[in-house]
Design a protein that fits this description.
The complex is a heterodimer. By secondary structure, chain A is mostly helical. Among the domains of chain A are: about 30-95; about 280-330; about 345-455, no CATH class. Chain A is about 60% helix and about 5% strand. Chain A contains 24 helices and 4 strands. In chain A, the strands form 2 sheets. Chain A has a two-stranded antiparallel ribbon. A two-stranded antiparallel sheet of chain A has the order 3-4. In chain A, α2 packs antiparallel against α6 (about 135-150) and α20 (about 395-410) packs antiparallel against α23 (about 440-450). The relative contact order of chain A is 0.09. Chain B folds into 2 domains: about 10-185 and about 240-400, Alkaline Phosphatase, subunit A (3-Layer(aba) Sandwich); about 190-225, no CATH class. In chain B, β3 and β4 form a beta hairpin. In chain B, the strands form 2 sheets. In chain B, strands 1, 5, 6, 7, 8, 9, 10, 11 and 12 form a 9-stranded mixed beta sheet that branches. Chain B has helices at about 10-15, 50-55, 60-65, 95-100, 120-130, 140-150, 190-205, 205-225, 240-260, 290-305, 380-390, 395-400, and strands spanning about 40-45, 55, 80, 85-90, 105-110, 160-165, 180, 270-275, 315-320, 340-345, 355, 375. In chain B, α6 (about 140-150) crosses α12, α7 packs antiparallel against α8 (about 205-225) and α9 (about 240-260) packs parallel to α10. Chain B is about 35% helix and about 15% strand. Chain B is globular and about 60 Å long. The chains are: A mainly alpha, B alpha/beta.
Chain lengths: ~450, ~425
């Protein structure tokens, strides 16, 4: 497939559509959100009902309260709460099955991809613009499909507008309740701004930390973004969970961000700032550095980063062209394979090597969690790190997973075939020898999957 | 038809395993004379060092052969005497107790017909029951079941074969349906796999070597400190110390016993334990091999206890693909050899014996001047068990179960 022209093959893969056709049956993020909200509402109702019934029964059983019974009241209250809890738990959470189904499709897309470069770009951008399933499980997969996948090979500005306007991001970065101090809602409710969303957009998503923006810029931008929220899921069975701009929450008047005045009155104000952030030179450097760090080296060659940033600026942030610039650069290919794969990449590499294309998402996502890279669950908006120091101590844990996987596939996977098919026999002689001398096929496979050739790229 | 109530249900197995599960209709197994025999085969993959497990302490050449690595009766951890000539590795007090009460036998200097030194081929011959590797996809235990069914001496209640592990051992694969159960615990990579990987990293990636070394250090601490209940360890998070290996062996073997003990459960089963390929730092008296044998001894205890009332109808055959070199190699381990040891345990045995036509340990007495000379055909032992315990006909054993073995007579009087 890769043949004699690896760069050409990588670039050719970027011309194919990135759609997940199998996802047609999955709910949109808004629909998933409504489904979970409905379940939560039912759960609350059941809990209340159960609590009330428990209390009624207690009252009926004790028409006149003695002192002892007064003392026992505490225990009765606990019993009522217990009944409420049980009633609530009887309503299943539809968020998890949705998450698992999304995880399955995403993983299988990576397994069947010819080369996987395009899928890895999706993964990269999904991590760069991460949300967390710990906060918003039902939407995490649909968010990636709707906002990231749709624009991963397009222009950064479109990707940026899509992710920052996505309900999952607005939930994740606490913008739903952010309101201008002088907005109608702000005045009436004596509440105000949440800076988180604006800060992370500038620090993590676009310009990068310490690139010259000030606290005032953050506050102004946060004001700009007030009113970016979502339709309450219970309010509208058709559009609940979708993006909406609410003027009632929006800080009136113009704002100055990075020295530029934005006088627009509605969501266009925020879109205008985002467009300028996407085109900012600091963003070009930030994006180029992160991409090169992910794909090439922890400390990427400065010339490569400069070339990618230049391409970014010259193409108005065309991410496909930036990716092409990266794989076309000799700098990217010169260094020996020293990049330690992240757990997610390593597992996919291992499964791909065996030809397996269908996964059970329950153990698969459990394995990812075990390896420290739970799918769509980074611990902070910065996403999962890309440097070796963050991951290398987990290599021992990888051995458990490799050993387990090797046992399960020892019957059908041949280590020699993998060496030929995956590495075209270009693998360290020591690895070949270790595989050849292994006590069992399981051991041979585990050693192969754990070899530096398999861990690094 | 009350027996149906006793079947392990599909759900029960799924709950227990959450994994691959396969069975179709039930094969039938002979239960002659009103007995209801059980046979469990445990394959030790990687080649157990028989001399490190059962030492010929009475052989005048023993000490000179192994030097300070030789198990002895007056060592720091004294070997457990079996008779005037052999002594058992001190890691196996359970096996010693069983032996002393006539419920265990040991066959020494035994081997399959395989005389090369490839693990894969060796295991293939051991489990297929054929004289050469790569000849068939079925195992002798499964073919024995098929033969029993075809022979008509069947119990109408039926029964089936059990495979433990996510890959069904070849010995029990074949046309008779096999049900499989996969242990819940994540078996850590064996000490051997870890040291091989460390060696690989040391030659290819020093950074990864450092990390792995730190982990192995941690794991050895875990082994030293493992005083609590290893079963309660979180198998996903604990370092891969011997405590986890012990827990895995006990869980796998104990579960096999529970299924075999069920009134209408399977009657034969097979499982494999890995990690016996002790090329480096074998540690028979204290170390790698000692720890593994201890874990195996724990598995025996789990089987005995879970078999409960049917222990007296049980035989467990513990076999390995070949032995190891008689001498210690340059890295305080042993390399692939020939003559090996087999453990037979169970309440149905007429045990308390070490069965060996002892070849001696002088250089000229060793196979190719390096391995313990095999003097007993392992097939004779297995045929003896199949004939006298399960009642498989001798002719069938010679033709279908171990094809071409007519001149290998079943060993007499193994079971009581």
């Amino acid at each position: 497939m890769v043949g004699t022209d690896p760069r050409g093959a990588l670039i050719a893969e970027l011309d194919r559509p990135l759609v997940l056709t199998a996802a047609a049956s999955l709910p949109s993020s808004a629909k998933a959100y409504r489904t979970v909200a409905d379940a939560n509402a039912r759960r609350t109702a059941r809990a209340k009902q159960a609590q009330q019934q428990a209390k009624k029964q207690q009252v009926a059983a004790t028409p006149v309260m003695s002192e002892d019974q007064m003392q026992a009241q505490g225990a009765e209250k606990d019993a009522a709460e217990m009944a409420a809890k049980q009633a609530a738990e009887a309503v299943p959470d539809p968020g998890r099955p949705i998450y698992l189904q999304e995880a399955k499709l995403r993983t299988e897309a990576a397994l069947v991809a010819d080369i996987g470069f395009a899928e890895r770009l999706v993964w990269f951008w999904s991590n760069h613009f991460c949300v967390s399933a710990n906060r918003i499980q039902s939407m995490s997969g649909a968010y990636e499909r709707e906002a990231v996948r749709a624009h991963a090979l397009g222009r950064l500005v479109d990707l940026l507008l899509a992710v920052e306007g996505h309900p999952a991001m607005l939930v994740y970065l606490d913008n739903l309740e952010s309101m201008g101090a002088n907005s109608t809602a702000g005045i009436n409710r004596s509440r105000g701004l949440n800076e988180n969303f604006a800060r992370e957009i500038m620090e993590l998503h676009t310009l990068g930390v310490r690139t010259g923006y000030t606290q005032d810029d953050v506050i102004s931008f946060a004001n700009v973004l007030t009113g970016w929220t979502l339709v309450p899921p219970g309010a509208d069975p058709q559009h609940g969970g979708e993006f909406i701009f609410k003027p009632r929450l929006h800080e009136p008047g113009g704002q100055t961000v990075l020295g530029k005045r934005y006088e627009q009155e509605d969501a266009e104000q925020g879109r205008a700032v985002l467009r300028d952030l996407a085109a900012h030179p600091a963003t070009a450097t930030h994006i180029a550095t992160k991409l090169a760090r992910h794909f090439v080296a922890d400390e990427p060659p400065p010339a490569l980063v400069a070339q990618m940033a230049k391409t970014f600026r010259e193409t108005e942030g065309d991410l496909k062209q930036v990716a092409i610039a990266m794989v076309s650069s000799d700098e990217a290919w010169r260094a020996p394979p020293s990049k330690l794969k992240r757990p997610g990449e390593w597992v996919i590499g291992m499964v791909r090597a065996t030809g397996i294309t269908v996964v059970d998402p329950v153990p698969y996502t459990a394995g990812q969690q075990l390896l420290g890279e739970a799918l769509w669950r980074p611990s902070a908006p910065k996403g999962y790190p890309d440097d070796e120091a963050s991951w290398i101590d987990g290599v021992g844990r990888r051995l458990d997973v490799a050993n387990y996987f090797a046992e399960r596939i020892a019957d059908t996977a041949d280590p020699q075939t993998i060496i030929e098919d995956v590495f075209a026999s270009e693998i360290a002689a020591e690895v070949k020898q270790a595989v050849g001398r292994a006590e069992s096929r399981q051991q041979a496979l585990a050693l192969l999957f754990m070899s530096a050739d398999f861990q690094r790229r | 038809m009350g027996f149906v109530d006793h079947l392990p249900t599909r759900r029960e197995l799924l709950v227990g395993s959450g994994a691959l599960f396969a069975w179709s209709q039930m094969p039938r197994l002979a239960r002659a004379e009103g007995r209801d025999p059980r046979l469990l085969v445990i394959v030790l993959r990687g080649a157990l060092d028989g001399l490190g497990a059962v030492a010929p302490v009475g052989d005048p050449d023993w000490i000179s052969l192994r030097g300070d690595r030789a198990l002895v009766l007056d060592g720091k951890t004294p070997a457990l005497p079996l008779d005037s000539f052999f002594a058992l590795n001190p890691a196996m007090p359970n096996l010693h107790r069983l032996y002393k009460t006539g419920k265990a036998s040991i066959v020494h200097a035994a081997a399959t017909p395989y005389r090369e030194r490839s693990h894969f081929d060796g295991q293939d011959v051991l489990e297929s029951g054929l004289a050469k590797p790569g000849m068939t996809g079925s195992g002798w235990l499964n073919r024995a079941l098929v033969a029993l069914e075809a022979g008509g001496r069947v119990d109408p209640r039926g029964s089936r074969a059990l495979g433990i592990g996510s890959v069904t051992p070849l010995v029990v694969r074949g046309s008779a349906p096999v049900m499989t159960w996969v242990p819940q615990k994540l078996l850590p990579a064996s000490a051997d796999t870890q040291s091989r990987l460390l060696d690989l990293y040391q030659h290819t990636d020093p950074k990864l070597a450092t990390v792995l070394q730190a982990r192995m250090k941690l794991a050895s601490l875990d082994g030293a400190m493992a005083s609590g209940d290893p079963m309660s360890d979180d198998p996903t998070l604990a370092p891969p110390g011997i405590a986890r290996v012990r827990a895995y062996f006990a869980e796998a073997a104990g579960t096999a016993a529970r299924y075999l003990a069920k009134p209408d459960g399977p009657r034969v089963g097979a499982m494999g334990f890995v990690g016996w390929d002790t090329h480096i730092a074998e540690g028979a008296a204290s170390g790698q091999l000692y720890n593994l044998l201890g874990a195996l001894d724990g598995a025996f205890a789990a089987i005995e206890s879970n078999m409960g009332e049917v222990w007296h109808e049980t035989v467990i055959a513990v076999v390995t693909e070949f032995g190891r070199t008689a001498r210690i190699n340059g890295t305080q381990g042993t390399d692939h050899g020939t003559g090996a040891v087999a453990f037979l345990i169970g309440g149905a045995l007429a045990g308390g014996r070490v069965i060996a036509d002892w070849p001696g340990l002088k250089p000229a007495q060793l196979f190719e001047d390096r391995d313990l000379m095999p003097t007993t055909d392992l097939r004779a032992v297995l045929k003896g068990l199949l004939r006298d315990h399960l009642r498989v006909e001798e002719k069938v054993l010679a033709e279908a179960v171990f094809p071409g073995s007519a001149d290998v007579k079943p060993m007499e009087s193994l079971v009581g």
